[in-house]
Amino acid sequence: MTLKVGSVTFNINGAPGVVKNIDQDRKEYTVDTDRNEIRKIHRHGYINGLSIEERDVFNKAVDEISEIQDPREKIEKMQKMVEDSRLDSKNIRMTRYLESELFHQMQILNLSPRYFKANMPLAAVARSI
Q: Has residue 67 got a pLDDT over 90?
């Protein structure tokens, strides 16, 4: 597993912590186990695949969605965010996280848009050719 500053890690008892500093020379990293710090960075799940900046954008997007009360409007807004994210080829990772959140919201709200797009896994693309 590759750790980055901001990644969540767990101690032997399963308690979470956030990586605060990595010392490559000494092969050590510093972990903050303060619950408030963990909630601040990982308030929408333990997401290790995004940089701190990307995670901040993701958290703000999910915060914005969380404020919407109407379930159908929530799904439509999330779908629009995913489609907008796809427009920038540098956002592949962010798009996948937003898609996952969209699918999660669709599952817990038992709703789905009439049409939606999703990226096919590369193996599925190869088989369809």
A: yes
